[in-house]
Design a protein that fits this description.
alpha/beta; 7-stranded parallel sheet; 42% helix
């Protein structure tokens, strides 16, 4: 199971997806620190390079994603851009591959996302927003890892919050692909699973998840004790023998069924159920 509560993860290919949501601004100074993004591939999207000017100026972007259609982008003038050409020129200057769904002008180093191949690989075309496509791409590269791509062991994100009205509809898609990552035992960190902090509203189920979680931890602790040598294992074995002895005292026929049965060393077990029952 992926550990999404701590920052401990095995070494391997690590990817950090940076969006433009609230946590990107709240954690901007942390994101620039080596302990947060050092050793991670940095993947960005849309005009997010404006949110992280230090990363952009240092040329640290490893992948970029602009998967909107040209029909949409050609009239796009948000932020400092007076026209689409200005925006696409900025993407071209990032110095990294830019993933697109359809060919776009100006961008020289663009790579077309193989959307049909991705959908067939996962047997799903369920996505909501660009971040879902980014997760799909990361997981596809994990699943098909060859010498050029290592298997992904750690995914981290900041700024993919899906809490504002415009992007709330993307949360189910983001959660879906986070779940697919957990299935692959990929460690998740940053703020990418903050959506899991929402509480249960069903009055009949409030607290149930915590109870189950406590039972899981208890079961895991017991399994660890069984695996570890020492008094605990001996005590458990002795308890099992004591339970069997009590069972036989209460139900002599159980012991009688073992009468004249060969033991492991070839001897014959001599059971005396009547005598034991009389105790």
């Amino acid at each position: 199971m992926s550990d999404i509560q701590t920052d401990q993860a095995p070494e391997g290919r690590k990817i950090c997806i940076l969006g433009m949501g609230t946590t990107a601004h709240e954690r901007r100074l942390d994101i620039l620190k080596d302990e947060y993004t050092g050793g991670f591939e940095l993947w960005g999207l849309n005009n997010g390079y404006l949110t992280f000017p230090a990363i952009t100026e240092a040329g640290r972007w490893d992948r970029y994603f602009e998967i909107h259609s040209w029909e949409y982008l050609k009239d796009w003038t948000q932020g400092p851009h007076s026209n689409a050409g200005s925006y696409l020129s900025d993407l071209d200057s990032l110095g990294c591959p830019v993933h697109v769904l359809q060919p776009l002008p100006v961008i020289r180093n663009q790579r077309q996302l193989m959307c049909v191949k991705l959908a067939r690989h996962f047997n799903s075309n369920y996505f909501r927003g660009s971040p879902s496509w980014m997760l799909m791409q990361a997981l596809y590269e994990h699943d098909t890892a060859e010498s050029v791509y290592g298997r992904v062991t750690h995914l981290r994100s900041f700024g993919i919050d899906t809490i504002d009205e415009q992007h709330a509809q993307q949360r189910p898609g983001w959660a879906f692909w986070c779940g697919r990552a957990i299935e692959r035992d990929i460690h998740l960190s940053g703020t990418m699973t903050d959506f899991m902090a929402y509480g249960e509203n069903d009055q009949g189920l409030i607290g149930l998840a915590d109870v189950i979680g406590d039972e899981v931890l208890k079961a895991e602790d017991e399994e660890d004790e069984d695996d570890a040598p020492g008094d605990s294992a001996i005590e458990k074995a002795e308890q099992k023998l004591a339970d069997m002895d009590l069972l036989m005292e209460r139900h002599p026929r159980v012991l009688a069924s073992y009468a004249e049965q060969p033991s492991e060393n070839g001897d014959t077990l001599k059971a005396e159920p009547q005598e034991r029952a009389a105790k």
